[in-house]
From TrEMBL:
Spans through the membrane: 26-46, 75-97, 118-136, 162-180, 207-231, 251-274
Name of the featured protein: DUF1206 domain-containing protein
Classification via InterPro entries: DUF1206
Keyword Hydrolase: no
DUF1206 domain boundaries: 29-93, 117-185, 210-278
Keyword set includes Transmembrane: yes
Keywords associated with the record: Membrane, Transmembrane, Transmembrane helix
One matching Pfam family: DUF1206
Length: 282
């Protein structure tokens, strides 16, 4: 079979996978799971702001909190399956858009943008699924500690310090994009609200306007800590989301600012629920 034929077969398989009812339903579960993680993050951030709780205010803390609840570990397995389905869905998107790389001009640029976004999302969903599986099996580890260990390992590579700094700048860029996505209302493209009521549309718009910028701020701070770790050559500075939220708390009016960030993260979690109810049609 020719390369063109192989690519066409892969794209066709991706279309069938992406349009599969089973995968769509699993992806809905994944979006709900993603929303639950953000609601737990918001709760931990509120506890951090007001002096309660002992869990890290990051993804590992959220999953650890869920694992401690009745039926928490079975729920973590369900969450992991849904997140894996989200990763597979994004992988199917990569194959679907790969066939359009041979185009030119704006069409090619759009294909490249879609592929980069889908790859990034697939990595995030897969990493979170792995973390959920580890907590479900009792081998979970603090995200901040893990990131510090990984950063220390990268520092030992040739030009590792520069690589850590570059990753930090990329994360900052992603955070800026989330803020832009919220302010510009581009998040509405992720939804099919044709059957939604006017009240639901207004609610969705408010959730996105609050949720995306708040998540963008959190990501920007995480990226900033990575850059600072590279500048100071100190992996302990790469303390992840927990460190980012503690940085907000240490700022002037930190308690109020962290509360606002927490409410924004909760809004993003609620937006994930809405997205599961009204998924985009590709």
């Amino acid at each position: 079979m020719s390369g063109r034929g192989t690519m066409g077969s892969a794209a066709g398989a991706a279309d069938r996978a992406g349009n599969s009812d089973a995968l769509e339903n699993l992806a809905r579960v994944g979006l709900i799971a993603y929303g639950v993680v953000h609601l737990l993050l918001a709760w931990l951030a509120l506890q951090l702001a007001w002096g309660g709780g002992g869990q890290s205010a990051d993804q590992s803390g959220a999953l650890a909190t869920l694992a401690e609840q009745p039926l928490g570990k079975p729920l973590l397995w369900v969450l992991a399956i849904g997140l894996i389905a989200l990763a597979v869905w994004q992988a199917a998107e990569v194959l679907r858009w790969r066939g359009r790389l041979s185009a030119s001009g704006d069409a090619r640029k759009k294909a490249v943008t879609k592929i980069v976004k889908s790859v990034a999302r697939a990595i995030v969903y897969a990493a979170l699924a792995v973390l959920a599986i580890r907590f479900a099996s009792g081998s979970g580890q603090s995200s901040a500690q893990s990131q510090q260990q990984q950063t220390a390992g990268v520092f030992s590579w040739p030009a590792g310090r520069w690589l850590v700094g570059l990753v930090g700048l990329v994360v900052i860029g992603v955070g800026v994009y989330h803020v832009y996505k919220g302010v510009s209302r581009r998040f509405l493209k992720q939804l099919d609200l044709a059957q939604a009521s006017a009240g639901t549309r207004r609610l969705v718009e408010k959730l996105g306007l609050i949720g995306f910028p708040a998540k963008g701020v959190a990501l920007g701070l995480v990226g900033g800590l990575l850059v600072w770790a590279a500048v100071t050559y100190d992996p302990a500075k790469a303390s992840g989301l927990d460190g980012a939220l503690r940085t907000v708390l240490d700022a002037p009016f930190g308690q109020v600012l962290l509360t606002l960030v927490a409410l924004g993260i909760a809004a993003f979690g609620a937006f994930c629920f809405v997205r599961a109810r009204f998924p985009e049609r590709t």
